[in-house]
Structure formats: C-alpha cells, structure tokens
Amino acid sequence: xxxxxxxxxxxxxxxxxxxxxxxxxxxxxxxxxxxxxxxxxxxxxxxxxxxxxxxxxxxxxxxxxxxxxxxxxxxxxxxxxxxxxxxxxxxxxxxxxxxxxxxxxxxxxxxxxxxxxxxxxxxxxxxxxxxxxxxxxxxxxxxxxxxxxxxxxxxxxxxxxxxxxxxxxxxxxxxxxxxxxxxxxxxxxxxxxxxxxxxxxxxxxxxxxx
Length: 210
Fold this sequence. Notes:
Number of strands: 0
Oligomer: single chain
CATH superfamily of the largest domain: Hypothetical protein, domain 2
Mean pLDDT: 93
Structural class: mainly alpha
Radius of gyration: 18 Å
CATH architecture of the largest domain: Orthogonal Bundle
Low-confidence stretches: none
Distance between the termini: 25 Å
CATH topology of the largest domain: Endonuclease III, domain 1
Number of domains: 2
C-alpha cells in the first residue's frame, strides 16, 4: 500500500505545483478556514478578502461591530453563526494568547468552531507543521483510490497518518484538493484525464472503454 501511495504522490506532484506556504498569517488561515465551512471555495475567498481588508488582526475583529462583520462575510453563507464564532475566537485569542494563534493541536481544538480539519489547516498552512487536513476532497479521493475505506473525514485523517510517511503529510491536502477541484470531481470525475487512474480502485470498477 505504501508503494502505491508514494507513486500517487509523485504523479500528483508532477501535475500540481506546491507553493502554498510562504509565511501565511496563521490568523487569516484560521478565520478563513472557519468561514469555509459548508460553503464553496470561491465564496470563502470573497468573504475572507472583504473581512481582512478591514479586520486583519484578532484585536480588530474582537472589537468589531458584529453587524458589520455579518455584512462582510455574507458571501460565505451561515454568516450569522460564523460572525459570532469568529468574533468569539478572536476574543479568546486576545485574552489567552495575546492575539496570536497557538500552534499546538490541542489548543486549537479548544477554540469554538474549530474541529480537526480546521486545526490541521492552521498547522499546515499557517505554521508549516506536518498534519493532514482531511476535507471533503481528501476524504473522497482517498476512498476512491482505495487507500482507505472510511465513512467520515476524521477516520480518513487517522488512517492516512498511519499509512503515509510523515514527510509527505504537509503536501497531501494541497495535492488532493487541487486534484479534486480539477479532475476527481464529486460528480462525473474526469477519469480519462486522470494521471493516477491506473492506481485507482474507482477507475478500475468502470467499463474498460471509459
């Protein structure tokens, strides 16, 4: 299985450039990931850009008018809940961590609205710390490939951590997200254009002329 996983990683690295880490602001990563819950990537991007133009620190967001925050993040959906949540998170960061985002998984998980996917995104994209954020793309593709047989993303994360060497953890999310957005779509995946189709259980179950 590990040989299969390493082949998949190498092939995807040829398809997609990995340049996501360039000292990204951990606070921006944290808030953006909370905003990304239950919405499309493009909506998250719009809402995050609007929000950070005005409130780009925990102190500013903690002291922000919640109605203004709701207006700025409306594109992300569920904005009433999310506005309250990100303000609460900012207040905790200000009170407990001097406005800084902690880089320990257990401390991140204590923040309201922060589950394992969000916490792992902060570790990977905010601090360059090895972790495996198991979002819908990672969960879907890992199961289609036959690397795991899991029902929920958290199970996928734990299984991948067992099967993938730690030095590759930090790239997995980026590779699978890009592949999931361009080729391995939730509906009607473009198997005929997929560079890893010969290693995929899902592809092997399709008609030979597909």
